[in-house]
Amino acid sequence: MKNRIIAVVLVSVITLSAFTVRGFAFLKGDLNGNGVLEVADALEVLRISSGIIPGDWYKKMIADMDSDEVVTIKDARSILSQSVDLTDINDYHEQLTPYTDHGFGTSTFCVVNSYYSEVLPASPIDNKSNPLYSAIPYGTFDIVTSELIHHSESGNDFYVLASGRRLYANEIQVFNGYNMPYNKAVLKKTVTKNSGSTQFYLALDWRVPFNVTVNPQEYVTGFNSRSFNIKDGVFTGNYIDITFNYTTHTEGELSFPESNVISHTQWITDGNNATLRVYLKNAGCFFGYTAYYDSNNYLVISVKEKMNTLSGKVIEIDPGHGGKEPGAGSGTGVYERDVTYNIATYLKAYLESAGATVVFSRDNSASVPEIEERRFNTLKNNPDMFVSVHCDSSADSSVNGSSAYYYKNYSGPLAFAISRNLPSAVKKDLNYAMFDKGAHFYPFMVTRVENCPAVLVECGFISNSQDFAIINSPAGQNSIARGIYNGIVEYCSWY
Ligand SMILES: [Zn+2]
Predict the structure, then answer these.
(1) What distance in angstroms lies between residue 325's CA and the mean position of ligand 1's atoms?
(2) 314-493 sits in which CATH class?
(3) Of 62, 258, 260, 424, whose CB count within 10 A is highest?
């Protein structure tokens, strides 16, 4: 019996898409929770919907339970909240939903039923990720203003929403719902945790869409004609803007004396939008955030503290490709998948010697996670930093050089530090002049995360014979890893 429960948990984590469909069945029926589910299923639904990372307490609790026991969602929520440190926000916050009549008529609604749904601008209809649109959490509601739009070039389907967003059709559920009153957002108390982040809580009347950007920042058009390169390579953000749609009433202000990243808040209302501006203590000093609904229905914004040192920090390294997906080849039987794993292994040793904990996105086996799953795992693992290791390739064998890529403006400084340090390490160690292609904006799948500085490094061209001699030798792989490590250390020393 206990084995079956554990199986439910493991299967749920691995096959998220199948799981969210099951999770939605109860959400559609009653978000506030009078539906009946088996204990383990109910807890897992709540865990995913609240974004809580399962710790040992959770695994033990699941292992101790009898799967035949049936509870209401409310009971399960109460069990879950007793097991999580919710500090001073421990009352359950009722929220409105479009599933009941509020007296304002009806519309076509959607609810986000993926863990964390990527957001695109309403127009033009393309498949280009935009770093100024932040992902929105599970359970967010919006009004649908379009029919299903098929983008033939990418094969993706979208819906356009009244808030000016566009979401992937496979990440939302569309339904006929009851129009909602305007939202009120109430800022609640803050908690600084030893785990390296500062949380604050918001009580929303309902799960309105919201967008998070770090401003001010000037962008310029650069590599690949994309217009999100941070000007002069400098991240200048001095405040976080969290803009809530359909929100006309606000309440509460906070200051964060214990945080080394955020200072205080200010509400700014503009028509039917309200922005919570959270000022940084120092311009350019920001390391990511997560946003999720906790098991009591509060929106939690968790802001990473600054690193200062690598000791005790969690760095996720993603050795590019792997398993059946070899990546680019040298033409001599050597593939990206193998050299990226070796470079990542050297990098791991350097980081661990500095006291960091290193997580790999994959092992060296034939069966490794798909790229979408790696992105999802980065959101779930919530590391302090993410580095994806790749090698470049070109049909023109004369093209050479190393480079680094960022998505969010606050990942830019890490990309610049690595792109500068990699060639200088290779020059110093092996007297090879790796061409420095610099750092650029690029929307790679794995770096499109909000929760930490995330970069992708191209460690030279596997298709260029001079670069390949470095990439393919143990000494070269070690030197490249040292260069990436030097960049990480330099980045940490700036703050
Ligand atoms: Zn690659």
Answers:
(1) 10
(2) alpha beta
(3) 62
